[in-house]
């Protein structure tokens, strides 16, 4: 081994080191925050204008407004239009609307650097979790927005014209910090056309649902599909059955990670009901491994009769839905001894809009949110995005809706005040994801209902401790 | 000129060194710093919590599962890829029947070389789409479709490849092997072609068969390439992020069913971005780096042999 050897070894080793370093460097450098200093004097420029009835937050007309929206199924045109409206109302201001699908990638450095935008639609797969932002003290308290006058009828306050549950869902860590703008309902979906053809009717009880499923299977159609690759969806169905059977108190106990909540008979009733679908072979073959688009498309092709989903389904499946499909929404069927009526549905505000605490123009940010809550803005949004907003009766009779969205409006008025929602996904994403995993295992018949309950209870114990 | 040597060398090294320190070493140090805090990832308010993240990591059963999966990949991915690549390279270069005394590959070797390299030009994103369709869990999937057509499985009870805890990791391993073999085949081919033909001819004259030629002549002379490949593939096995997060079930970077395909990188990302436990995720990053360093060092040391000069 001469010196020639050593040099070659050296080159080889440093090459190997470089190989080690490069791939992980990409991963790790993501950790590095931009070194912004939170305690710096980067205080928001408090607007000098005095608050008035027309200008409840005292917006400074000369201050620019920086808006960032998630560019998903709802697009960004609504934000651009509102931005223009803001500019005309506050002459001299400049509202710049930016959009992205990668909220975390774009905004994490800005939060860390202390220069976030003034309004953010924090949504999508890359959303920054609200519980995380709240714990990091990055969110403005939006209580002032709730007490501000409603633009269409200034005798009312904003808090009086919001759908039930909007304020509760916007409450994280005891403060109202996010306006969830879109009102979503969850339940089962079916094709009105398919049901009419076969003379099937919407099952109101779980017994009817199971016996109808038997009929559907005989007709050569799979009774039930779900978006198995993302167990979020089936978990919603399970938790809804549990809430309807155990009542709102139980839902609240689950939300607060009370471990004894999982001993409630309603939990057993709910999970055993879902397991019946698996056990009787009523699942669409392979559905446990399909993505949401794959399974929903098979449902659109009449390969499956029911699918659980939220009311974004119609907009999401627009291209795959046959023209005469006649999409219909229904609440989860009733179990024996349900505390809530059949019409009760999970309904809630989603699509979180926030005003960061370190925003330069927080007053403008809140004013922008107030302008989103008008009949005109809400109606436009509903017809363009096939989704309802949290503005009560926000869709005038003049607004044309597609069949699925129209059936959610009917279901919502039938439900009246019988709506519920869970808050645990917003307060503890780790618990939520772990519970979804359990539900996926149950659907694949790798867990029994009893094991599911034991494991879910253990998760609650862990979440309570954290 | 001796006294001018060092400024000359430093002049060449200074730019890469500064880049390396800024973009590699400094982030490493930062990561280590953050791993000692309870940083949530969204603000500069965090507390120093000492080694708490590391103790928690030690008791975290999901992280241990993920580590175990990386170790499984670390064992099987290099072995399978290198053996297949060596076999194909040998057949393509020297495995042919030598009719007229020369050493050559099997018939059509040139075509094989090109065809084997095809998967290498596909990006990971394309692999994910492609194999999403191959492993699709109903009879519309390529594998299930074929099995159903051959009446080997019931269309009403298809194999949910990526939703089966016993299959999912091996399905992903197969993708990486499929995608990687071509590259190492070309690498080994190039190395084999630099081996003088007369050594092979001498072996043939001495009556060595294909097997003996391979183990006694080819493999020892290729050892350098094999060693480098081993380190390189091992680093791939330590990552595996893209395939797992793109193909496997589960909310937030896959890893399912129920962590059966979890690797350290996906668990790190979920903690970093979804759970608001960025300090904890940084501790995982430090562990991943340490394990990768150890693996590389061990691989280079264990496989060290005397060089054969030719």
From TrEMBL, chain A:
Chain residue ranges for the region called Disordered: 30-56
Matching Gene3D superfamilies: Periplasmic binding protein-like II
GO cellular component, one term: cell envelope
Coiled coil location: none
Domain of life: Bacteria
Keywords from the UniProt entry: Signal, Transport
SUPFAM superfamilies given in the database record: Periplasmic binding protein-like II
Pfam families in UniProt: SBP_bac_1
Major location category of this protein: other
Location(s) in or outside the cell: Cell envelope
InterPro entries cross-referenced by the UniProt entry: Bact_solute-bd_prot1, Chitin_NgcE, SBP, TAT_signal
Entry's family note: Belongs to the bacterial solute-binding protein 1 family.
Protein name, as recorded: N-acetylglucosamine transport system substrate-binding protein
Species: Actinacidiphila alni
UniProtKB/TrEMBL annotation, chain B:
Location of the ABC transmembrane type-1 domain: 67-299
GO cellular component: plasma membrane
Subcellular location: Cell membrane
Membrane topology: Multi-pass membrane protein
BP GO terms, sorted: transmembrane transport
Main location class: membrane
Pfam families reported in the protein's UniProt record: BPD_transp_1
CDD domains named among the record's database cross-references: TM_PBP2 (cd06261)
Keyword list, A-Z: Cell membrane, Membrane, Transmembrane, Transmembrane helix, Transport
Transmembrane segments: 7-29, 71-94, 114-135, 167-187, 230-248, 278-300
Family the entry assigns: Belongs to the binding-protein-dependent transport system permease family.
Protein name in UniProt: Carbohydrate ABC transporter membrane protein 1, CUT1 family
Organism: Actinacidiphila alni
């Amino acid at each position: 081994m001469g010196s020639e050897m050593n040099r070659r070894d050296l080159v080889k080793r440093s090459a190997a080191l470089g190989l080690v370093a490069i791939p992980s460097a990409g991963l790790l450098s993501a950790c590095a925050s931009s070194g912004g200093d939170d305690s710096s004097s980067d205080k928001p420029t408090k607007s000098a204008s005095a608050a008035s009835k027309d200008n409840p937050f005292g917006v400074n007309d000369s201050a620019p407004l920086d808006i960032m929206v998630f560019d998903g199924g709802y697009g960004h045109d609504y934000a651009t239009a509102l931005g223009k409206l803001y500019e005309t109302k506050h002459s001299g201001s400049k509202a710049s609307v930016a959009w992205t699908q990668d909220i975390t990638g774009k905004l994490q450095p800005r939060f860390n650097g202390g220069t976030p935008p003034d309004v953010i639609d924090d949504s999508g797969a890359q959303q920054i979790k609200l519980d995380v932002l709240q714990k990091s003290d990055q969110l403005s308290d939006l209580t002032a927005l709730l007490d501000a006058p409603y633009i269409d009828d200034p005798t009312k306050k904003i808090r009086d014209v919001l759908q039930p549950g909007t304020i509760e869902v916007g409450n994280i860590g005891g403060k109202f910090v996010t306006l969830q703008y879109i009102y979503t309902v969850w339940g089962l979906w079916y094709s009105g056309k398919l049901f009419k053809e076969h003379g099937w009717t919407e099952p109101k009880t779980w017994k009817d649902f199971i016996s109808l499923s038997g009929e559907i299977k005989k007709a050569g159609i799979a009774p039930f599909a779900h978006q198995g690759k993302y167990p979020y969806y089936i978990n919603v169905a399970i938790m809804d059955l549990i809430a309807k059977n155990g009542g709102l108190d139980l839902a609240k106990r689950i939300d607060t990670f009370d471990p004894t909540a999982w001993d409630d008979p309603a939990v057993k009733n709910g999970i055993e009901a879902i397991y019946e679908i698996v056990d009787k072979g009523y699942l669409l073959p392979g559905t446990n491994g399909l993505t949401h688009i794959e399974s929903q498309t098979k449902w659109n092709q009449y390969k499956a009769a029911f699918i659980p989903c939220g009311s974004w389904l119609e907009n999401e499946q627009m291209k795959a839905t046959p023209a005469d499909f006649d999409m219909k929404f229904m609440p989860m069927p009733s179990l024996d001894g349900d505390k809530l009526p059949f019409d009760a549905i999970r309904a809630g505000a989603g699509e979180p809009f926030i005003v960061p605490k370190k925003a330069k123009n927080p007053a403008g940010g809140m004013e922008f949110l107030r302008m989103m809550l008008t009949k005109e803005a809400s109606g436009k949004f509903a017809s363009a995005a096939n989704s309802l907003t949290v503005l009560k009766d926000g869709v005038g009779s003049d607004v044309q809706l597609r069949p699925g969205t129209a059936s959610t409006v009917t279901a919502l008025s039938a439900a009246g005040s019988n709506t519920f929602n869970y808050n645990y996904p917003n307060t503890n994403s780790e618990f939520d994801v772990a519970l979804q995993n359990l539900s996926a295992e149950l659907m694949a018949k790798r867990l029994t209902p009893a094991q599911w309950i034991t494991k879910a209870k253990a998760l609650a114990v862990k979440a309570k401790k954290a | 000129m001796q006294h001018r040597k060092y400024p000359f060398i430093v002049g060449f090294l200074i730019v890469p060194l500064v880049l390396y320190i800024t973009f590699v070493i400094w982030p490493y140090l930062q990561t280590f710093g953050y791993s000692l805090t309870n940083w949530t990832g969204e603000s500069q308010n965090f507390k120093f919590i000492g080694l708490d993240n590391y103790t928690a990591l030690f008791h975290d059963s999901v992280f241990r599962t993920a580590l175990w999966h990386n170790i499984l990949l670390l064992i099987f991915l290099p072995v399978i890829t290198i053996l297949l690549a060596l076999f194909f390279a040998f057949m393509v270069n020297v495995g042919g029947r030598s009719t007229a005394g020369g050493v050559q590959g099997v018939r059509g070797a040139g075509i094989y070389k090109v065809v084997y390299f095809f998967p290498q030009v596909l990006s990971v994103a394309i692999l994910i789409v492609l194999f999403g369709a191959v492993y699709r869990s109903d009879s519309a999937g390529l594998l299930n479709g074929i099995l159903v057509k051959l009446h080997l499985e019931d269309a009403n009870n298809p194999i949910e490849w990526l939703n089966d805890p016993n299959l999912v990791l091996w399905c992903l391993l197969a993708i990486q092997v499929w995608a990687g073999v071509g590259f190492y085949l070309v690498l080994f081919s190039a190395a084999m072609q630099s081996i003088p033909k007369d050594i092979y001819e001498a072996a043939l004259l001495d009556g060595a068969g294909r097997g003996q030629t391979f183990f006694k002549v080819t493999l020892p002379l290729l050892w350098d390439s094999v060693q480098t490949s081993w380190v390189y593939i091992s680093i791939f096995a330590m990552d595996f992020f893209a395939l797992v997060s793109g193909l496997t079930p589960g909310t937030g970077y896959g890893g399912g069913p129920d962590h059966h395909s979890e690797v350290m990188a996906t668990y790190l990302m979920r903690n970093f971005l979804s759970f608001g436990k960025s300090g904890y995720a940084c501790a995982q990053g430090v562990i991943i780096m340490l394990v990768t360093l150890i693996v590389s060092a061990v691989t280079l040391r264990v496989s060290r042999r005397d060089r054969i000069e030719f």
